[in-house]
Amino acid sequence: MPVRLSSFSYAVMAVIGRDGASGPDLVQMASGGAPFFWTGAGSHVLRTARRLADDGYLRTRSEPAKTRPRTVYELTHKGRRAMRNWLAAPSTFPVIQHEAAIRLFASDLGDMEQVLVSLAALRDELPRLEALIDFHAQRADAIPHRTQALRLNHALARRLIDAHRAWIDDVEAAYGPGGSN
Fold first, then answer.
1. CA-CA distance, 129 to 116, in Å (whole number)?
2. Are residues 83 and 11 in the same domain?
3. What is the model's pTM?
4. Tens digits of pLDDT across the chain (181 residues)
5. Domain that holds residue 109
6. Which of 110, 116, 120, 142 is deepest in the core (most CB within 10 A)?
């Protein structure tokens, strides 16, 4: 029976891409996009890569590093075929787990002032996320075969940040001092 790959498995193979990636590279690349496009701890990324290698989607090789050899993952023919099939499948609206929106939805069960404070913490996080996008945008040219896709994804991430900022403004206008409640 064929192994069913998760969306996260495809994300890991996408990060490995055509040039391959070491374990530390995978963790670093995953942490760069994680707040916007997927969630998963570095350990989960590495476990997924190892499972994909065990299932024949990736091959591994050892490469010298500063302190000890590191494992480099590369797509196999089976992995490339799986990626081509996945890329051709229809895209659907993303799965969203939006805790702030659920807090607003359930705000009648608690104290709206505390919910507004919670949303202020989200607003305070947005400049850090913008700086993260800026950092990765400066590095986009280093991956010529993905530069345009990276720039478009950075634009999407900026729009998500702008949308969250506007949404928080709307919530504060409706529920804050002088709001219509």
1. 20
2. yes
3. 0.81
4. 456 898 889 989 988 988 898 988 888 777 665 567 766 677 788 899 999 999 999 999 998 888 888 899 999 999 999 999 999 999 998 888 889 999 999 998 999 999 999 999 999 999 999 998 898 888 888 888 989 998 999 999 999 999 999 999 999 999 988 665 6
5. 99-175
6. 116
